[in-house]
Amino acid sequence: MEVLIDFIPKQVFYEPDALNYPLGKKLIDYFQSINIPMKPTTSHNRVVGIVGDTPQEAYKEAKHTLVIGVRRSKTFQTCKPSAHYQLPLATSCPGMCEYCYLSTTLGPKPYVRIYVNIEEILDMTKNIIESRAPEITIFEGAATSDPVPVEKYTGNLRRTIEFFGREPLGRFRFVTKFTDIDSLLDAEHNNHTRFRFSLNCQYVIKHFEHKTPQLLDRVIAASKMLKAKYPIGFIIAPIFRFENWQDEYTELFVLLEKYLYENMPPNWSPKDLTFEFISHRYTLRAKSNILNVFPKSKLPMEEKERKFKYGQFGYGKYIYNPDEINELKEFFLNKTEKFFPGAKVEYFI
Length: 349
Ligand code: SF4
Description:
Order of helices and strands: EHEHEEEEHEHEHHEEHEHEHEEHEEHE
CATH topology: pyruvate-formate lyase- activating enzyme
Bound molecules: iron/sulfur cluster
């Protein structure tokens, strides 16, 4: 049976300006009506009042906090290599993955933020698309968040998918671990949105991806999107080496094969699938943040077992050794071709 991971915040902060937007007003009225404690905040970027006696408590408190804000920045960040630009619909997510790639950027209190000025955000998107015509412009909706857990409150994802459905030169893609996607099934996507699921083997989900749906539930959700004729794809990340990693990751492909072929629409071919693979890596800064919040973490982060690689912003990361990465790469490329012949592997790093 599907375990629904339902995000209900314990407290809500809102920027008073959010009340000037219909979505902001609707949400603030809604949280008031169900008696969730609410407080104004001057900026969604700097929220004070998320407390906790220890780093672990503060982190948990933040993950149960929703901030309703207005996104004022007039530019979108670039988003290489998966897209041209980020499209910020939300920041952070209620999941508690130990390795979360946002833990370094969002600091020790990664509270969940949503933006209510969606029309302005989509107007900016339109301007960018038009400025690059006749090129196609691709936007990534999950660069700073997992946008699905807050969709039931905002409807922003559906609105964005339908916006791109009407844009001949715009494409949208995002990735999620969450499965509450039924409200998106009949959105008019016009094949302009690629819906990617972030998957991992059961072992990794159980040990490191707390408060996120199980593998089977994610695979079922992906098969529903496929049936709804969305272009779909998978990010398998981070890939870990551990005892039995081959068996565990093979099981993942077996499960995916079963559900996708059972639910594929007529004329679908595995050639329409995309895969992205990311082997585990960490920086010393991320390691120290992770151990602050998860002091008993079993994430493999032993510098002596890894190769140090200089990063582009002056800090280095610890990756698996080249022969280990080659073995992983060969394994995943072979499995992809065996189970989904012709599927596109966008990258393996
Ligand atoms: S689901 Fe994604 S964004 Fe959320 S905690 Fe996990 S890795 Fe981070």
